[in-house]
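Chapter summary example.
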Amino acid sequence: MNFTSMVEAQYSELLQTVEASRAGIAVVEQMAQAVVKALRNGNKILTAGNGGSAADALHMAEELVGRYRTNRPSLPGISLAADVTAVTCISNDFGYDQVFVRQIEGLGKPGDILVTFSTSGNSSNIFLAIEAAKRAKLFTINLAGKDGGKCKGLADIEWIVPAKNGARVQEIHTWVMHTILEAVEIEFSK
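The structure predicted for these 190 residues follows.
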């Protein structure tokens, strides 16, 4: 196998995805403003995702509670993928498609934000989580990819990364998350 050509192809695809994503920059600003506003109002950020997207959800929540780059007050962020006892209990008793819904019903309050990560936008538990969040009067932010899947158009703010490759979608999701966190750091480090 020629690793050089594979690495170059991966890099080229990443650059193409980054350039194709330029049109969504204003959406990222809206997401950052919403998150900062919610935190300023004393609300919390709930995050959700499956697989690699669960890792993104965990990453965002831990950066809020801990810190991103600078010391600032700890902020309320909870990943709904983090508590293995809740995830396994809910999955066992209600089914995996309810794993985030039940937590939103128990933890979410009006004014909180649910941030979802899904490379396809087709995960039933993410779709149902956004619906549950809206019923509970949470503000919803959805990061998806491909064509947005069945979650397309459901959230208050969404960014569908214009890529078919899940790895490229997740790479842009990470950039979006880090940009939101940068805005949070700026606002709460004053």
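To summarize the output: The chain has one domain: 26-188.
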